[in-house]
Specification:
The complex is a heterodimer of chains A (about 450) and B (about 300). With about 450 residues, chain A is α/β, with parallel strands linked by helices. Chain A contains 20 helices and 13 strands. Chain B starts with a helix and ends with a helix. Chain B contains twelve helices and two strands.
Chain lengths: ~450, ~300
């Protein structure tokens, strides 16, 4: 009897949970609207109950707390909209969750998606381009940073509103530079100069350069050299990209440079963990590394009392004088189109708030991301911050000096995350014996296949 | 007529009792299985929705790619490194601790204890042990004057490290099965062997091992299936890396389906893996059954 009970209750429970889980399945049929959904004038009645919107983001730790603060301020500043904010894991984790909700109503109204997945979001046809709302409300975007807008503008449309933006800068230990007889105010600008400085710096338990595997670095190297990462104008003109250029000269040059530095013991390899590389830099065990401006405050603060941190531009190979400049990194906010017009409008109101100089100034000084609007630089807190962290100037200068062209806009493909995985495997293979050309050839081939498969099935 | 009705009633009654388990199997085994077959014949768009019926294109793609054979090779290497090691260690431990006495009870408890640890928790603990700078293993090595090893970051070591952890966690169950197998061997066989003047090594070879062969055979079949389906520890410890050195088939198909959102090729990979495991199980039964001694 006991046995029988057990046997019946378990399947009953299983069936019940299966039914409950069904709600999570994706039924594609009810994705009712298209990209260019006509937007009707919003009738915001102030007497109605407040509209609640869900915002999913990927900012963990200290930056997550800043987000919570910003949202709290917004909710307190007005009574029509309540923003509910949820941290959903790192960028790719978050995107996978968004993918799983596409076609159902369970997803967020507004979602933060990282730079490289912009093409996927556009192709998903699950979003309302912010351009429609900008045009409708005649919202002035002339004060927004041009280079940042350029990245998120595809086919002359701004699909999402940039939010957190960083770029890739070069960090060095000024004290170690002095000790090695190098000019601490003159950071190396080319691969060759970095190698030469590393030779002078590598001694007494110090290694010149900290290398860690960050696919973004390779993408920046292409942009900085003024070269395309994928064909068809980096996938940004009328035709989508169909081929990866990962294995062309700029890529092979960059990887060969890293490999030689490691082989000659002028650099230490920290694998895929950027935090480990930064720790060694702070400990004074390594003297140079590249990294996001997002790490700037952390590095400068941690080095306080030990040594002075210097910043410079991301290095390029000698003689590559083509027009380039680092592309930006970071993320933007998207409005999902499977929500009611009221909710989309509420999300748009919130996005406008996020883009205001005041919020951007607060966001900038609390996180280290660039403000997306130039007006933020006039805010007093930003001016004070630049006095405290003069290292930011190099990053801002690098951003403003970048020539705007297809190369510096960065690649636009739908399978960027997958390409990064292929690239990461290629680097690991090159570090373990394969030639950089051979390793990148393989990764480029796999990437091209993935891009083409994406294009074939993207309907 | 009445007879038929009675028979039907009896059959219906029987099926009624089977229904709960059939339902469970149906939802969690048969339905996903047929859905996988269905998906494997289709292509999906970047959002994971079905686009086209493509016949066997997914299978052709997979069987034509070097990458797939690489992950098959790693899966088998992994099985080869874990199964014999685990069986031999467990067998030795079982032989050493099967006698009833006060101390052995504690040893039995210790050796079987890894069965109670969820594989996710175990992986997290081992990840800390393997950590390049903060991990225990490299700390102990430093006492011996050995340079730190990139347990999980060096392609030459990563698969070995994952295997060590897998052997450790599988010992619990294997040990338990073999121990109960040994305990099931009648005592009088040993007594009469002793009277004939057999030594203890002869008794192990001539009595214990042959009579334990059904348990060993059972464990080897289960282990092959388990090893080829390993996922959790790889997902937590290495994520298939570095340089794909631990990218076993199951992890690869997970990536394909749930990261790249290509359910078609992901499902096709799952079907191929299913066929490989099926083939192996049949072969094992054919070959091993002749040598297994059922008393």
């Amino acid at each position: 009897m006991k046995n029988l009970k057990w046997k019946t209750t378990v399947p009953v429970l299983l069936v019940a949970s299966a039914i409950a889980l069904q709600g999570c399945g994706n039924s594609a049929s009810n994705s009712n609207s298209t990209n260019n959904q006509p937007t009707k004038e919003s009738s915001s009645s102030s007497s109605a109950a407040p509209i609640t919107i869900n915002w999913w983001h990927a900012m963990s730790g200290a930056n997550g707390k800043v987000i919570d603060q910003v949202v709290k301020d917004f909710n307190a500043s007005q009574s029509n909209i309540v923003v509910k904010v949820t941290f959903q894991g790192a960028y790719d984790e978050l995107l996978n969750k968004v993918k799983a909700t596409m076609g159902s109503k369970s997803g967020p109204s507004m979602v933060q998606v990282n730079d490289v997945n912009t093409r996927f979001m556009i192709d998903s046809k699950m979003i309302t381009p912010v351009q429609t709302l900008i045009d409708r409300d005649k919202f002035d975007i002339s004060q927004l940073e041009e280079h940042i807008l350029n990245y998120y503008t595809v086919d002359n449309q701004l699909y999402s509103m940039p939010f957190n933006t960083s770029n890739d800068v070069f960090y060095y230990n000024k004290d170690l530079f002095k000790a090695a007889g190098l000019d601490p105010e003159n950071p190396p600008a080319t691969f060759e100069e970095v190698t030469k400085d590393a030779q002078a710096l590598t001694k007494n338990g110090v290694t010149g350069y900290a290398f860690y595997l960050e696919p973004w670095d390779m993408e920046q190297s292409f942009a900085k050299q003024g070269e395309l990462y994928v064909n068809n104008d980096n996938g940004r003109s009328s035709e989508p990209a169909t081929e990866s250029f990962m294995n062309t000269k700029p890529g092979v040059d960059t990887l060969t440079w890293w490999k030689n530095m490691l082989d000659n013991k002028l650099a230490l390899n920290f694998g895929r963990v950027s935090a480990d590389a930064q720790k060694s830099f702070i400990a004074g065990k390594t003297a140079m590394l590249t990294g996001s401006t997002g790490a700037l405050r952390g590095l400068v603060d941690a080095a306080k009392g030990k040594f002075e941190v210097g910043t410079g531009f991301f290095p390029i190979p000698e003689g590559s004088a083509k027009d380039g400049g680092v592309a930006i990194g970071g993320a933007s906010n998207w409005i999902m189109n499977n929500k009611s017009q009221e909710e989309q409008d509420a999300a748009w109101e919130f996005i406008k708030y996020l883009s205001s100089p005041k919020v951007q100034a607060f966001w900038h000084i609390s996180t280290g991301y660039f403000p997306i609007t130039k007006d933020a630089y006039n805010e007093q807190i930003v001016k004070d911050n630049l006095v405290k962290y003069p290292q930011f100037n190099a990053a801002i200068e690098q951003l403003h000096q970048a020539k705007s062209n297809y190369a510096s806009q960065g690649a636009s493909v739908g399978v960027f995350q997958e390409m990064r995985n292929f690239y990461a495997s290629a680097v690991e293979e090159a570090m373990n014996g394969k030639s950089p050309q051979e390793a990148l050839d393989k990764a480029a081939k796999s990437s091209t296949e993935a891009i083409q498969k994406y294009n074939e099935t993207n309907k | 007529m009445g007879n038929k009705l009675a028979k039907f009633k009896e059959a219906a009654f029987g099926f009624g009792f089977l229904m709960p388990s059939l339902l469970g199997f149906g939802i969690f085994l048969f339905y996903p299985f047929f859905k996988s077959v269905y998906l494997s014949l289709h292509s999906t768009n970047p959002r994971g929705q079905i686009v086209d019926f493509v016949w066997f294109d997914n299978f052709k793609d997979i069987l034509g790619s070097e990458h797939f054979y690489q992950s098959i090779k790693i899966s088998f290497l992994f099985a080869l490194m874990t199964i014999p090691t685990c069986l031999i260690i467990s067998l030795c431990l079982a032989l050493l601790t099967h006698k009833k006495n006060k101390i052995n009870i504690y040893f039995q408890l210790i050796f079987a204890s890894s069965i109670a640890i969820p594989i996710g928790n175990a992986s997290v603990i081992w990840k800390i042990l393997f950590h390049p700078t903060a991990g225990m293993f490299n700390y102990f090595l430093s006492f011996l004057g050995i340079d730190p090893i990139g347990w999980l970051t060096d392609p030459a070591y990563a698969l070995i490290s994952v295997s060590i952890m897998t052997v450790w966690i599988s010992i619990g169950f294997t040990y338990l099965v073999l121990l109960s197998g040994i305990k099931g061997i009648p005592e009088d066989l040993y007594e009469s062997a002793k009277m004939d003047g057999a030594g203890s090594s002869a008794m192990v070879r001539k009595i214990t091992l042959p009579l334990l062969s059904p348990a060993i055979f059972f464990m080897s079949v289960i282990s092959v299936i388990g090893a080829l389906q390993s996922f959790s520890q790889i997902n937590i410890l290495t994520e298939g890396g570095p340089a794909n050195s631990t990218n076993v088939v199951v992890y690869d198909l997970y990536q394909e389906a749930f990261v790249n959102y290509r359910f078609g090729t992901g499902s096709a990979q799952a079907i191929i893996l299913f066929l490989i495991i099926l083939l192996f199980t049949i072969v094992q039964f054919r070959i091993a059954e002749r040598k297994v001694h059922y008393s």
